[in-house]
Each structure stands twice: as C-alpha cells, then as structure tokens.
Amino acid sequence: MPKYKIALVSYLNSRPFLFGLENYSFKNEIEVLLDTPARIADLLLKKEVDLALVPVAVIPKMKKHFMLPGFGIGCSGEVQSVCVFAESKIERCESILLDYQSRTSVLLTKILLQKHWKLSLREKKTTQGYENNIRGAQAGLVIGDRALMLRDSFPYMYDLGTEWKKMTKLPFVFAAWVSNKKIPQSISEELTSAFQLGINSIDKLIKEEKLKKNFAGFDIEYYLKHAINFSLDKEKLEAMNLFLKYTEDLN
C-alpha cells in the first residue's frame, strides 16, 4: 500500500508537528518530506504530496483544497521569526529584499507596506545569501530560523505578526495543513492525534533544542510556547480570510 506523503517546513516552528509525525504509531504508514515553504507549496500544487503544511497564500491557486481542521502555524502579535530588518527606519528605506523561501510572508510584507506603513519601496527578488545585502537604505524580509539568528544584528527590526495585529487587531496565520483531495477520516484522526502528541511534547523539544545550541541567546521556550500558535481557531480563520482578501487587492 502506498505511503501517505506529508510535507512540512524544516523550521523550528514546525518541530512539534514533525515530532508527532515521527513518534506516533502510524509513522510507518507515512512518508515525510522537509523543505522550504515555497518549495512545499509547489509540491502540493503539482500533487506530488498528499498533505502539506503550506503558506496560506497558496490556497487561492488550488482548484480544490481541503484543510485539516484545528492546526497550523500562526501568532497573535509578535511571531519573532518573520521580520523585516534594516539599518534605517522603514520610512527611510528605498528598497526591500523579499525572502525567496516565502510566499505568505512576502505578500504580508506588501500588504503592510501598502496599507499599514503606506510606503512604496522597490521590491527585489532574492537568492541564497541575500541577507548580506541588507544595508543602507535597503531593508530585507527574512523568515524562519534565519530570522531568529538575525534578531540582534540590525538596529531596526519589524515583526510582521506585531505589525499585522496593530493594523487589524487580529491574529495571523502563516501556514495551514492543506490537501488537494479530501482527507480520509481515518488519516485525519491519526494526524490529529500525532500533532497533539507533538504539541504536548514541547517541553521535551525545548530541552533537545537547547542541547543543540543552534539558537544561543534566543528564548526557545517563549518562542514555542507563546510566540507561535499551533491552533487554528475561528478568529484565526477570520484573519486568514481577511489576508486572502487583501492579497486580491494587490493583483
């Protein structure tokens, strides 16, 4: 019997989901792939995986989509791992580098520039290593673990979860569990149990990450317990729909 293919990001914020998938009883029935958010979106659009933790910006591109209820990657204010960094105030910047690993965060940046900061910066696509070009009047959007490592590297940092909350008074959803075909009830129940196992194991994950020392000086416990929200409730769905509406205005 073919394994059920599941894709998710390799960032710290998805570790509870990955832990659940790797340690729950049905781990031998699934195949897990790790990649960047943009690449995972492509895998789902091309139907190369059955289910993926995808940037919510990909949803309108799908002919049909089915969401696994209850779980995602979101925040209610500060998210810490999705930030615009700059050497100057955002109002003094002339251009902005947009993270090549992202879709949702790039669109969120464009929305905030237009509706919140009311600025028109020259937008630049990027490739690996672009973070070294964040200087002078050129800002840069950085997401994921790289953003966590850059938090003390620039005089100005704009947390996009915080800025969205200022503008809308709502939480934000960066990624959701989405399939391009209806998820069988048996799989849905197994996934729900696996993800809950991962979320319940956050204290263990925090200890493991501290031993690795990949994020020296960063409060991993606060990040996984408070900055990142793993639930997808009614208010977050409202926020997600507002975000998707705003993306239409950009086109």
Instruction: Report the radius of gyration as a whole number of Å.
Output: 18 Å
Query: How would a crystallographer describe the biggest sheet?
Result: 6 strands, mixed
CATH overall fold name of the largest domain = D-Maltodextrin-Binding Protein, domain 2
Query: Helical content, roughly?
Result: 25-40%
Category by helix and strand content: alpha/beta
Briefly, what CATH class of the largest domain?
Alpha Beta
So, the CATH homologous superfamily of the largest domain? Periplasmic binding protein-like II
CATH architecture of the largest domain: 3-Layer(aba) Sandwich
In the sheet with the most strands, the strands line up as 2-1-3-10-4-11
Distance between the termini: 43 Å
**Global shape:** globular
Low-confidence segments: none
SSE order, one letter for each helix or strand: EHEHEEEEHEEHEHEHHHEH
DSSP helical segment count:
9
Tally the beta strands. Answer: 11
